Amino acid sequence: MSWHGIRTVAALELRQRVRTSKWPVVLGIWVAVIALVAFLAYYATNDEQLRSGEAMYDVVVFFVLGLAMLIVPSLTATSVNGDREHGVLATLQTTLLTHWDIVLGKLVAAWALSMAFLVSALPFMAWAWFEGGISFGRILLSLLVLVLVLAVVCTVGLMFSTLTARPIASAVLTYLTMGALVFGTTIGFALSAFLVTEKEQQTVFGIPDNWYDTHQPPNIDPSDPTLTQAQIDQLMKAGQPTRADCTTFTRTTDVAHTERIWWMLPLNPFVVVADAAPSEPRHQRDGVSTAGFTPMRWISGGVRMARNGPEGVSDECWVDQASASSSQDPMEKALGTAPVWPYGLGFLLLAGGGAATVAGRRLRTPIRRLPNGTRIA
Amino acid sequence: MTIEVQGVRRAFGDVLAVDSISLTANPGEVTALIGPNGSGKTTLLLMLATLLVPDQGAIRIDGLDPVTQPTEVRSRIGWMPDGFGTWDALTVREVLLTVAAAYRIAPEQARARTDALLATVHLEDLADRRARVLSRGQKQRLGLARALINDPSVLLLDEPASGLDPRSRIELRDVLRGLAAEGKTVLVSSHILTELQEVADRAVIVARGRSLETQRLDDEHAMTATASWRIDSLDLDGLTAWLADHHVPARRVGGGLTEVEVAGEENAARLLADLVRDGIRVTGYARSQGALETAYLAATEDRR
């Protein structure tokens, strides 16, 4: 393995890709679609009172990831078995290039092309940045994660193209793998949630069920002329529980132990990207709130909640406005806990490393065992 | 830079592609590998080209084992596959420069080598055209140039003449002879026998995955080997009677020709002189088939 060898293969691959395919057209469509999505996101979330930057950013990043996961596998999923079919793989294998030169060269080429897609989406991310509400560090982190996720996608495609004889088969297998990562993990999590849901004693901090039995609201007639408005309010309030009425008690209820199955969720590349850099909490900043539509934040909070599992004490003391804002929203609380994306990214990188190793082994010559239907030259 | 193959065997699943092939190819010689379709020629060449591990037997190229020392072997060999594919989007020159880079040849040296090889295979005019536009024969010539780019001392050519026009074939023959004269080992597989007859020093006949025999094809061999000669005469009856009188085994073949078996060129010349002396009006007298053809047909007879 040498840098010279990798560069030779990568240059060969890039030259062929750029000349044979209609890359300008594909790239043009890509930019047009992303531009359209960015504009729509801007108009949907733009408001005098709100910052639209965060919503735009989330939409654009997810769209880039989704579309790239559709396009990028086509860069590598046919590269080895396609070469075999054209009788050009053996031409390289009989030179001084090693099998690692060929695998890594092809990977570098495909990855460089997927970077072209990412770079052409950068102006729209920059636009979201100008709209405000996103930190520069957040853009940097999510871009880094995107770059790594796309590299893994390239590697998976390359592995399948070394494993199957026909380009169609490897393309299908690659898309199936992407589907399993994106939809399979989500569906798997949702379905297995039933398996970890049990009837359990749960400690609750709130208004006990019997409170309302003992505290009947006073029977008053608002139209009674003998009462002033202030007196009516006073009487109504007396019929409502206050924070002081909240006690700790236990109750048997269905509890989902998502902390046993949460690990499925970070395998999803969308979760990794979302959790790596969710938007900051919604807050007033120089009098302008950020927009409410923040899918990355929701995904991130949801997955961290699933990871944390049910709380020891369920805080259900929702009595009046003041106490509701003082007791924290569970998602806000979860967002303050440790992130899950390092697990997901770690898994994806391990999978990518494994895929590259398999691909390398499959290209080693001389071949001892030849898989069915594969030709050498 | 000798190629030595000893009892090599290779199966793909339950298909036995090569049963037992042994051969030796020496430097300075062109060795032909001939045999019917599916006799294991291409599989043998894949094993020699370090792409495939033999199930049994041993291969040595310049004393090196392609299985355990593939890199050393690769730097010494040039392999031209059957049905050579090219990177269609690259120009002819770029194809050769890419392969040169894969052999870690320095760029300047690679450019010089590429220009020289393009001249050798007469593709200078097409050097900057896409490889896609090449005809089959032109692709074969590009394949030959590709195999020569690292100045190999051992050349493995799989059906190099297929798809070539007559002029290119003659040029290929000259290129191969030139390479052998430089002391390189050339192993050519083909089933165009007349072609090989002219270029090869030795022929290894393979059939059903086995090497049947090795035949020398040099002049000395041609002078002594038994061959069939065809005689065309104005008086067919007189010729037949004369041959019967002189106990020359003969048979009628199509077109009013008579075929006789004669051992060696000396005897063939004597027979012609005798015929003319006795007043048989001979208008044509030629070998019916080359020695290689005779040997090949004899060796592969059981196929029928």
Radius of gyration of chain A: 28 Å
Helix content bin of chain A: 55-70%
Report the oligomer: heterodimer
Determine the N-to-C terminus distance of chain A.
22 Å
N-to-C SSE series of chain B?
EEEHEHEHHHEHEHEEHEHEEHEH
Strand order of the largest sheet of chain B: 5-6-7-3-8-9
Structural class of chain B: alpha/beta
The first-level CATH class name of the largest domain in chain B: Alpha Beta
- Radius of gyration of chain B using CA atoms only: 23 Å
By secondary-structure content and strand pairing, the structural class of chain A works out as: mainly alpha
What would you say the CATH architecture of the largest domain in chain B is? 3-Layer(aba) Sandwich
Return the average pLDDT of chain B rounded to an integer.
87
- Please outline the major beta sheet of chain A: 3 strands, mixed
% residues in beta strands of chain A = 5-15%
Total number of beta strands of chain A: 6
Ordered list of secondary-structure elements with their pairings:
The complex is a heterodimer of chains A (377) and B (304).
Chain A: H1 3-20, H2 23-45, E1 50-51, H3 53-71, H4 73-76, H5 79-86, H6 89-93, H7 99-131, H8 136-163, H9 167-192, E2 197-206, H10 211-214, H11 229-238, E3 247-256, H12 269-276, E4 284-285, E5 288-290, H13 295-308, E6 313-315, H14 321-326, H15 330-335, H16 341-362
Parallel strand pairs in A: 1-5, 2-6
Antiparallel strand pairs in A: 2-3, 4-5
Chain B: E1 3-12, E2 15-25, E3 30-34, H1 41-48, E4 56-61, H2 70-76, E5 77-80, H3 92-102, H4 107-120, H5 136-148, E6 154-158, H6 166-181, E7 185-190, H7 193-199, E8 202-207, E9 210-216, H8 219-224, E10 226-233, H9 236-245, E11 250-253, E12 257-263, H10 264-277, E13 282-287, H11 291-299
Parallel strand pairs in B: 3-7, 3-8, 5-6, 6-7
Antiparallel strand pairs in B: 1-2, 1-4, 8-9, 10-12, 10-13, 11-12
Helix pairs in contact in B: 3-4, 4-5
